[in-house]
Each structure stands twice: as structure tokens, then as C-alpha cells.
Here is the input.
Amino acid sequence: MMTKTKYSEKAQDKVGKVMHEFKEGKLKSSSGEKVTSRKQAVAIGISEAREKGLKVPKQKKKKD
Here is the structure.
């Protein structure tokens, strides 16, 4: 049984590079603050991949 790929190889590489920056303590948010949350680091990697037009899942709609 084959599973459908959610992320392209290049998107995975991009998230991996961002996570590497996060682990080294060099990752900054858009406001210039140091990123301390793992979830925030992943979100930054996915959004950067999305900006480059790489294959990533659609953003989930937030419910109020």
C-alpha cells in the first residue's frame, strides 16, 4: 500500500534546514525575537516552503 506524499522532498529539506537553525539557536521570528518553540520553528519552515511554491498541505482554517 502506497501512501500519498504530503510534502515534497525540497519542502522537507527546507523544514530540516529551519529546524537545524532552531537547534543552533539562530532562528528568529519575523519580529526579530529568538524562536523558542519547536512548533513555531516547524511553522516557519512550512511557511517558507509555501512561499517558494513547494508542495505542502493546505493551511487548516482556524475555528473561532
